[in-house]
Design brief:
Layout (H helix, E strand, L loop, with lengths): L1 H17 L1 H15 L1 H5 L11 H17 L6 E2 L6 E2 L10 H8 L2 H28 L3 H15 L4 H22 L3 H15 L8 H15 L3 H21 L1 H9 L18 H14 L1 H9 L1 H10 L8 H19 L4 H9 L15
Antiparallel strand pairs: 1-2
Helix pairs in contact: 1-2, 2-6, 2-7, 4-5, 5-6, 6-7, 6-8, 8-9, 8-11, 10-11, 10-16, 13-14, 14-15, 14-16
Length: about 350
């Protein structure tokens, strides 16, 4: 154990002295290694994934081809006997549409997941350094863990999950930075994240937890007003970019991909529901927390407990933020009254927050 700690500290010192540029190089090398099969094997590479290449990818590709011919993709006749374009909530102006449409099939998909891996890993790296003040080695490890956790998931989830750490970091860091170059770089990163979110599946709930995150970090109301300004600008940009999807969703709300979900859990007294969920939480604490906050969130939280006596106020508030996510996931998201509310308002049927919570 002592030997491991000694080696870890030496590696961390070398990385810190050499500058963060070497840390970013590690993410680039990891990205290349993880994607070797996609670029070497080409069309023979295994690129599968739930609802990815068999449904969402060709759907988005058809939309891109329509737009490239300056045709509005209002109706796609070759899918399920004909569906409106917003059926899979794929936005016209999204990063996935751009990369998978411009480049050849296999290489476009590989390039897209490369970009998502880098957004996720680099965003998490700076998120950990900025908010948790961890050592450089810890930030690198966390970035690699989150990058490898999200880059090969369902097509519609990759962008949402990959962008969260960079959004939280960028909106907060932009307030304290005085360098014009860094300011423009962070601004460009936020714009990239804005094109990377799916509106109906991810953006509203990520926005809600972004607000919760800011509330946890704010020292007072004056500090909250200061922090909310760049976040408001970012989410206004998200709405603007997703405007084609939003308009179509409102006009064809009964034909969305989740509009026919009419299932409800067993109705029970909410008091008994809380007892049932609390019992499960107590008997399966690690599984429950990991399910709500993500495996990476659980690992980071367990690691941070080793030096909890040195926690700053901001770190205590970040722990409160993770607690909010846990409470929502187990005591609200699966409750009968909440699911019935979602069914009563069709536009909420496609929102599945428990799949995109902050890592």
């Amino acid at each position: 154990m002592k030997l491991f700690k000694f080696v870890y500290n030496r590696v961390n010192e070398v990385l810190t002295l050499s500058g963060r540029i070497y840390s970013l190089a590690i993410f680039l090398v990891a990205c290349i290694i993880l994607h070797l099969d996609r670029f070497v094997l080409g069309r023979f590479a295994i690129l599968g994934g739930h609802d990815a290449l068999d449904l969402t990818y060709p759907y988005g590709l058809e939309m891109f081809e329509r737009i490239s011919r300056f045709q509005l993709p209002l109706w796609l006749p070759d899918f399920f006997g004909g569906v409106p374009f917003n059926w899979m909530d794929v936005n016209w102006l999204s990063l996935s549409m751009l990369l998978t449409g411009i480049f050849p099939k296999n290489y476009g998909w590989g390039l897209y997941t490369c970009v998502e891996f880098l957004i996720a890993s680099i965003g998490t790296y700076y998120f950990m350094l900025h908010f948790f003040k961890v050592k450089n080695g810890t930030a690198i490890l966390t970035g690699l863990l989150w990058g490898t956790a999200v880059f090969d998931q369902t097509f519609i989830e990759i962008g949402d999950k990959a962008s969260i750490p960079l959004i939280l970091y960028g909106c907060d860091y932009i307030l304290s930075n005085r360098s014009t170059k860094i300011f423009l770089l962070v601004l460009a990163s936020l714009f990239l994240c804005a094109t990377n979110l799916t509106f109906a599946k991810g953006a509203p709930f990520i926005g809600f937890f972004h607000l919760s995150f800011i509330l946890c970090l704010s020292q007072d109301f004056k500090d909250f007003k200061k922090k909310i300004l760049p976040s408001s600008f970012f989410w206004s940009l998200v709405v603007l970019i997703n405007l084609p999807s939003i308009v179509s969703l409102l006009k064809s709300i009964n034909y969305g991909s989740r509009s026919n979900l009419n299932w409800l859990p067993e109705q029970m007294n909410y008091f008994y529901f809380i007892i049932k969920q609390s019992r499960f939480l107590i008997l399966n604490p690690l599984d429950s927390i990991a399910g709500a906050t993500g495996i990476i969130g659980l690992l980071v939280f367990i690691y941070s407990l080793t030096f909890y006596r040195n926690w700053e106020r901001s770190q205590l508030r970040l722990s409160l933020f993770l607690l909010i996510a846990l409470v929502y996931c187990y005591f609200v998201d699966s409750a009968y009254w909440y699911m019935k509310l979602r069914l009563d308002y069709n536009f909420m049927n496609g929102f599945r927050l428990s799949r995109i919570l902050l890592p």
